[in-house]
Write a structure and sequence with these properties.
With 348 residues, the protein is of the alpha/beta class. It has 2 domains: 170 residues, Murein tetrapeptidase LD-carboxypeptidase, N-terminal domain (Rossmann fold), CATH 3.40.50.10740; 147 residues, LD-carboxypeptidase A C-terminal domain-like (Glucose Oxidase, domain 1, 3-Layer(bba) Sandwich). The protein contains 11 helices and 14 strands.
């Protein structure tokens, strides 16, 4: 999502959400939205195998080009999956793929369907935050399944983990590039029960480096910095105690990155995490460089008081080649080899 769209979305949503009306079958879910201390038992979805039924739906931005849907369906079918298409991928409601109730109801429907093993999303943009209080989290506990996405889906992935303990997956959406690297990382996490995420040898990752050396262990949380920060102060923000936090963003000037990192600092997040992994921050340059700090300087300013290890430029985010990272799985982080190793597979 571009910086122009994201800012306009956030501004316009306040007025729209204030007048939204919940149907009877969704209003009861508000009772389950009190903060948790995350003393739950982790839930691991079943790994995907050939013949499994998966779903593509819209929970955020609307798709204007239906070829994106056709192409994504073909990619998944080539992996041997039976693919269902939700009605939300064909809907438009302003910049959203349907009304809040349409998107939430369809998601809850697929969650309750025991034949569906995974739910994928056609794109990010904006919209997930508007339905977090309409998700049937209890049903997700009863029917755990693979939930995959990134960008705006960051709010859904972390909210689900925080509310249920279900491991979710930060990875490509339907309009992402599903090149060999991204597809292999996705299949390794959700199908082959992989444990290691290694530095790939690709041109875009020349910046993959160490900002502060060290080793750390902790449960993975995070995603898009802008969206993750939007959860601060809500019942959907996950505990950061002892966690390895990963963050990425796109089309944000250094002063805006500074503002968001400062919000996390003031909220005590950096006092709690055991390690920090920055993904790719593509096109996050100042419009007037001579009047700005660089992004690297901003990060140094915000983190200079902390001792945890920090990796910079990992294959995470709005880029062609990216890892699929599980949220809710404990991992070991080692800056010596710029690698992440899970202590157990993310799927059962």
């Amino acid at each position: 999502m571009t910086h122009i769209k994201r800012r306009s979305f956030l501004k316009s949503t306040l007025a729209l959400s204030a007048i939204s009306v919940l149907p009877n079958n969704l209003s009861a879910f508000r009772e389950n939205n009190s903060p948790l201390n995350e003393s739950f038992t982790a839930l691991y979805p079943t790994r995907l195998t050939k013949g499994d039924t998966v779903v593509i739906m819209g929970l955020a931005g609307a798709v204007r080009d239906q070829k994106v849907v056709v192409d994504f369906k073909e990619i998944l079918e080539k992996q041997g999956f039976v693919v269902l298409i939700g009605q939300t991928v064909y809907k438009t409601f302003g910049y959203l793929s349907g009304t809040d109730d349409e998107r939430a109801n369809e998601f809850n429907h697929f969650v309750s369907d025991t034949q569906v093993k995974a739910i994928f999303f056609i794109k990010g943009g904006w919209g997930c935050g508007r339905v977090l209080d309409k998700i049937n989290y209890e049903q997700l506990k009863n029917n755990p399944k693979i939930i995959l996405g990134f960008s705006d889906l960051t709010s859904l992935l972390n909210a689900i983990y925080h509310k249920t303990g279900l491991v979710t997956f930060h990875g490509p959406t339907g309009n992402s590039s599903w090149d060999s690297f991204s597809l292999n990382s996705f299949m390794d996490m959700v199908s082959r029960r992989g444990l290691s995420l290694q530095k790939p040898v690709i041109r875009q990752l020349q910046v993959f480096s160490v900002l502060r050396a060290g080793k750390a262990s902790g449960t993975l949380i995070g995603g898009n910095l802008t969206v993750f920060c939007s959860l601060l102060g809500t019942p959907y923000f996950p505990s950061c105690s002892g966690k390895i936090l990963f963050l990425e963003d796109t089309h944000e000037e250094p002063y805006r990155i500074d503002r968001m990192l400062n919000s996390l600092r003031l909220a005590g997040v950096f006092d709690q995490v055991s390690g920090l992994i920055f993904g790719q921050f593509n096109d996050c340059k100042a419009e007037k460089p001579n009047e700005s700090f660089t992004l690297e300087e901003v990060v140094q300013h915000q983190l200079n008081e902390y001792a945890f290890p920090v990796i910079w430029g990992a294959p995470i985010g709005h880029i062609k080649d990216k890892w699929t990272l599980p949220i809710g799985v404990e991992a070991h982080m080692n800056t010596d080899d710029l690698a992440l190793k899970l202590i157990r597979p993310a799927v059962s």
